[in-house]
Amino acid sequence: MTKTICFFLNQEKIEIELNEGGGLRPDTTLLNWLRERRKLTGTKEGCAEGDCGACSVVIGRLTSDNTPNWQAVNACILFLPMLHGSVITTVEGVANADGELHPVQQAMITHHGAQCGFCTPGFVMSLYAGWCAGMDFTNVAEIETLLSGNLCRCTGYGPIVSAGEALARWARPQWATDRVLGDISALAQMAATTTKSLDLKCQGQRYSAPASLEELQTLYAENPSAQILSGATDIGLWVTKQHRQLPHLIHIGNVAELDSLKKTDGHITIGAGVTHQQAMEALAEDYPALQEIWSRFGSAQVRASARVCGNIANASPIGDLSPCFLALDSQIVLNKAGKRRQIKLDSFFIDYGKQNREAGEFVEAIILPRLQAGQQLLAYKLSKRFDQDISAVLMAGCIDVQAGKITDIKIGFGGMAAIPKRAMQLEAYLKGREVSVFAGEMDAKLATDIATCLSQDFDPIDDMRASRSYRLLAAAQLVQKMFIEYQSGYMRLSKPQHFRTPEDFTATVQA
Ligand SMILES: Cc1cc2nc3c(=O)[nH]c(=O)nc-3n(C[C@H](O)[C@H](O)[C@H](O)COP(=O)(O)OP(=O)(O)OC[C@H]3O[C@@H](n4cnc5c(N)ncnc54)[C@H](O)[C@@H]3O)c2cc1C
Ligand code: FES
Ligand code: FES
Fold first, then answer.
1. pLDDT of residue 492
2. Any idea which ligand is nearest the CA of 236?
3. Residue 112 C-alpha to ligand 3 middle, in angstroms?
């Protein structure tokens, strides 16, 4: 057990003791600490809620198999003790000590990637994360995904994307590579530190970060009123926007046993420590339809911090993964003091803010069935903006067709009720039908029946994301779209294509 947080900041070892007499609360954000304590004001505050990317810094960590991993994260919603055992680079640490600019900085200048400059440090850090991770900068779609969590109100994104593309052609200076190697040895040096759990008490707040599953089970069972903290992409906003007092946080991010994604012939088990980014990469072949959902989930920064199980445990009616996992008929594993319960996900969501979870019980994992022959999962997200936006409606359907008949179908919806919910009336109506009846233009009676079933299944609300009537209409049309795509075997592009030249367009269409 230790009371000292240890991490590296721009190659400098930082050790901060948080004890009763100390001046820092554990929920101090990295952004506030950088700007107010360290006077590193290059990292900007735009929104303080993870949306704009102006506060992006790069975090390096060792994964559970000891591979170094570099990602941009939003410093505004990351609490200082969550950095324990990591290396952090801010915009002040990107250039060489002698002042020579790093290629990511020089590319932004050469390609006129800044006007007022407020967003620029954030863009530089996102590009730097890609550079450290050895990303393929020839792929424009990947650059756009990398930068989708950085907003710019004045330059326009074209020059910034061009700066990213230039990195594919520019040499990698030795000093910059050596610095990454230095960061990797810093991570190895701290590896022993992170195996010790943290227990910090400061200014009336307690922060525990157990290092093993056994310790977590005991700690939470003994302190059931504590708040479980995983990636803080929800909880960070409770602090920065709602100024909530959280007397005891239990961070699960250092529990190695939870950082595991296992595949067997029949199932995939995602532990509570697995981030959206890790799951997105690992499950690309298993569930192609989830790739678009994941690539539009928040931003690269959000996906790097947020955990898959956090998105289920928060039971948000507009969470993106719950409807998809409902369609897959997933199971959730709950753990209280080491006693495990495995229940169907649809029995976990009871009502708004109410889940089938006892005091002291936490989500240990989610278990997804693998798709069998004849089964297909399709999923659609509707939001006002393509990237980095919360869904107005999200629909996922898992269709099982044997000998031309729909033998089973499960359809999950988000944004249609107070909880993520299956469309049971509609499922019952569709089961047993010949799938060929959905081919071509949909029969008017079929379309009306689908809309009627949905209005029996759901009573959606009007809010700023969509009206009730839009939600019902969109839901019915998404069901139709799902069958059209099922029939045609049409695979959507994971991103809309942006063509720079007519030749690009022609080449893509011909391909
Ligand atoms: C800018 C931005 C964009 C976003 N975009 C999207 C989006 O496109 N789609 C979407 O669905 N969501 C989105 N979110 C919401 C959020 O990122 C997700 O819900 C995320 O998966 C939450 O996970 P987390 O690990 O950050 O949870 P945290 O913030 O750490 O916790 C969230 C809640 O879950 C509880 N919890 C977490 N893990 C466990 C566990 N293992 N057991 C018990 N309780 C637990 C916590 O106590 C807390 O109540 C966005 C958030 C931000 C800030
Ligand atoms: S300040 Fe906007 S994402 Fe952090
Ligand atoms: S350069 Fe002004 S906000 Fe991007």
1. 53
2. 1
3. 11
- What are the tens digits of pLDDT across the range 42-88? 999 999 999 999 999 999 998 878 889 999 999 999 999 999 999 99
Query: Where does ligand 3 bind, in terms of residues with CB under 6 Å?
Result: 114-120, 152-155
**What SS3 class is residue 258?**
helix
Q: With left for phi above 0 and alpha for psi between -120 and 50, is residue 160 left, alpha or beta?
A: alpha
Nearest 5°: CA angle at 371, between 366 and 374? 155
Give me the pLDDT at residue 494, please: 45
**If you take atom 3 of ligand 2, which residue's CA is the nearest one?**
50
Between the CA of residue 247 and those of 27, 204, 227, 354, what are the distances in Å?
10, 7, 8, 21
State the distance from the centre of ligand 3 to the C-alpha of 40, rounded, in angstroms: 19
CA-CA distance, 511 to 506, in Å (whole number)?
8
Check if 24 has its Cβ closer than 6 Å to any atom of ligand 1: no
Please give the number of the atom of ligand 3 that sits closest to the Cα of 115: 1
Gap from CA of 367 to ligand 3 centroid (Å): 43
Q: Residue 369 C-alpha to ligand 3 middle, in angstroms? A: 45
Q: Coil, helix or strand for 271?
A: strand
No. of helices (H) and no. of strands (E), the chain: 17, 20
User: Tokens in use for 69?
Assistant: 């991993």
Q: Residue for token digits 């969501």?
A: 349
Contact 315, 353 (CB under 8 A): yes
- Give, in order, the Cα–Cα distances in Å from 124 to each of 168, 227, 230, 455: 15, 34, 27, 48
Q: Are 309 and 330 in contact (CB under 8 A)?
A: no
Buried b (16+ CB within 10 A) or exposed e, 162-200: bbbbbbeeeeeeeebeebbeebbebbeebeebbebbbeb
Mutate to test the pocket of ligand 1, among 230, 303, 349 (most ligand atoms within 8 A of CB): 230
Q: Characterize the bridge pairing of strands 248-251 and 205-209.
A: parallel
Residue 131 is predicted with a pLDDT of 97
Domains of the chain from N-terminus onward: 4-92+178-256 (3.10.20.30), 101-172 (1.10.150.120), 260-488 (3.30.390.50)
